[in-house]
Write a structure and sequence with these properties.
The chain folds into two domains: 1-111, RNA polymerase sigma factor, region 2, helix turn helix motif (Rna Polymerase Sigma Factor, Chain: A); 132-190, Arc Repressor Mutant, subunit A (Orthogonal Bundle), CATH 1.10.10. The protein is an all-alpha fold. 67% of the residues lie in helices and 0% in strands. Belongs to the sigma-70 factor family. ECF subfamily. This is RNA polymerase sigma factor (Sigma-70 family). Residues 27-92 form the RNA polymerase sigma-70 region domain.
Length: 190
């Protein structure tokens, strides 16, 4: 399921009360909503509150969705607004004389909703290509993406290979991914 492609049917079914369709919508957008919340440096509990609040907002508006291709942007914008509201609420909880600017809360500009949507779509394309790889290659990619703290020896142990084989396996994996992405007309992953 990809936003904008089969989403129209999912939206219509969810608006008609189909719980399976609503669950599929929730699964599709969970990464986006949590990424938006985390980009605002919210903790895990607040991030999930933003996720849930966004879905509560969507539930009442789902029958009004006219262009399902824009749903992901609407979700990202709504999540961003809820995240900012959560941050404003936190500001009220701070002791007198404490300013978030002083602790570096605003040092890094937050990515826009559009940038988050584009990044998530890029990630979706990459993982779709990765799904075509052999199991060990997929596991290596997952470990590199989600466990960057692992050493070469730890990667080798998790993959069940010799430590000296991790580098060549990574090269073969990346070469195959690059070839598939080029064949689909996607460049810039050099």
């Amino acid at each position: 399921m990809v936003f904008g492609m089969e989403l129209g049917e999912l939206c219509a079914r969810a608006a008609a009360g189909d719980q399976t369709a609503m669950a599929a919508l929730a699964r599709e957008a969970a990464a986006l909503l949590l990424a938006v919340a985390r980009a605002h440096r919210l903790d895990e509990a607040d991030s999930w509150d933003v996720h849930q609040g966004t879905w509560v907002s969507l539930a009442g508006r789902l029958p009004l969705v006219r262009d399902p291709r824009r749903l992901s942007a609407w979700l990202a914008t709504t999540a961003r607004r809820l995240a900012l509201r959560t941050l404003r609420g936190r500001r009220r909880e701070l002791p007198r004389g404490y300013w978030p600017e002083e602790c570096g809360l605003f040092e890094h500009p937050h990515p826009s909703a559009e940038a988050l949507v584009l990044r998530l779509e890029r990630d979706r394309v990459l993982w779709r290509a990765a799904a075509r790889l052999p199991r060990r290659h997929r596991l290596l990619l997952w470990l590199l993406a989600y466990r960057p703290d692992l050493t070469q020896a730890q990667l080798a142990t998790r993959l069940g290979i010799a430590p000296g084989s991790v580098g060549p396996l990574r090269k073969r994996c990346f070469d195959q991914m690059r070839a598939w992405l080029r064949a689909e007309g996607i460049h810039g992953f050099e």
